[in-house]
Write a sequence for this structure.
């Protein structure tokens, strides 16, 4: 009987570093989470590493907590790449088919051709995602292997990132004894954890509201259609509160968590909050309605920016499966109703799917990216088990290069 395999994911976010360790059942590939480690994220600001030593410490503590809970140690992991430095670029590749039928080698060549696009010197390719293929005049082909033709084209999405940032991620993880199996853009990871196959087919947008940015991933007909990272997130709400109410950042964060809402209509004009209840330095009162109006204005902006992105690809109000919200910042009261009104779509909170184990610790929308790392990792391992040939995607990391590890199912 085959032995169960361990798989790990490390989500290096702006507020938290989250590590998850899971067992993968050998027979069914089912995921059973056995260890979770969550630590404050230090050394990272607005999605960028600003103090590598502090980042290493945060990753190390998170990893140690997960390993202690699991009773197992790991030396490889799938690691998230986040931040508004991520850019998606549409591209096309064209090759002549070498044989009568399209082979794996032809797919490899056409994806390599799609990567021959000009990039700034500090930007590298993280992932190549084929959206559809064209064989001669036959368009919208999803799986061309075994089909016949003379000319093969691919319509692809190229996700790029800043090279120095990725090198810092690599260095930080190596310092704690972890080799990177793959670097996965966080918008794809969070979407993979919470979206069903049917939602992807019908049309859906996954929206992850993080600390310093909001990432979206739009799927249609089972394929990634568009992804973008917007540089506005939960910390902007906190900053607005601090400026608008003239409080410290720490007090503003407490106000957001304890009294925050996106619906000012539910609050009386005369309701007040006594700051002495949450602060040792402040003893005055503030208007609760003013607090909520500040919060609502920033969340309205976030969802308006998402709607603008949907409009750019002609999907504004046209996604039957609606919007799925993830990230710790979407748990504030009234957020779903506001999102529904601004986006003009059905909206629901995304919870991780297809994972078992310590569910009470992971059944939360803020864990979507962390769990998406291991769900995508399992799929990559399945594809690797078929002994497919590898494709070097720019030598992002010397131990990363397997062809289908770079593709989204």
């Amino acid at each position: 009987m085959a032995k169960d395999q361990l798989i790990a994911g490390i989500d290096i976010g702006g507020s938290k570093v989250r590590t998850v360790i899971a067992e993968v059942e050998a027979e069914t590939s089912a995921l059973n989470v056995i260890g979770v480690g969550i630590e404050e994220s230090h050394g990272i600001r607005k999605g960028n590493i600003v103090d590598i030593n502090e980042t290493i410490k945060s990753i190390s503590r998170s990893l140690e907590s997960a390993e202690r809970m699991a009773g197992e140690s790991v030396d490889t992991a799938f690691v998230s790449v986040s931040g508004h430095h991520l850019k998606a670029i549409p591209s096309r590749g064209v090759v002549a088919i070498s044989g009568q039928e399209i082979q794996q080698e032809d797919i490899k060549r056409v994806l390599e051709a799609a990567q021959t696009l000009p990039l700034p010197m500090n930007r590298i390719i993280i992932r190549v995602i084929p959206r559809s293929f064209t064989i001669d005049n036959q368009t919208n082909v999803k799986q061309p292997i075994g089909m016949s033709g003379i000319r093969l084209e691919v319509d692809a999405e190229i996700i790029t990132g800043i090279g120095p940032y990725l090198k810092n991620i690599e260095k930080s993880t190596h310092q704690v004894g972890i080799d990177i199996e793959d670097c996965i853009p966080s918008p794809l990871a969070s979407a993979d954890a919470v979206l069903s196959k049917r939602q992807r087919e019908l049309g859906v947008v996954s929206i992850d509201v993080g600390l310093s940015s909001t990432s979206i991933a739009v799927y249609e007909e089972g394929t990634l259609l568009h992804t973008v990272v917007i540089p506005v997130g939960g910390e902007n709400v906190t900053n607005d509160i601090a400026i608008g109410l003239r409080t410290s950042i720490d007090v503003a964060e407490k106000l957001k968590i304890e009294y925050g809402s996106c619906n000012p209509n539910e609050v009386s004009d005369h309701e007040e909050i006594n700051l002495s209840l949450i602060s040792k330095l402040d003893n005055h009162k503030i208007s609760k309605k003013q607090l909520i109006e500040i919060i609502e204005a920033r969340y309205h902006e976030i969802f308006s920016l998402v709607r603008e992105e949907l409009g750019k690809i002609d999907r504004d109000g046209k996604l039957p499966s609606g919007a799925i919200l993830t990230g710790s910042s979407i748990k504030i009261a009234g957020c779903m109703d506001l999102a529904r009104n601004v986006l003009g779509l059905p909206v629901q909170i995304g919870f991780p799917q297809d994972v078992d184990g310590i569910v009470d610790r992971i059944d939360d929308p803020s864990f979507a990216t962390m769990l998406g790392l291991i769900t995508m990792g399992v799929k990559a391992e399945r594809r690797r088990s078929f002994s497919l040939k590898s494709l070097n995607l720019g030598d992002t990391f010397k131990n990363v290069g397997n062809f289908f590890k770079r593709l989204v199912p």
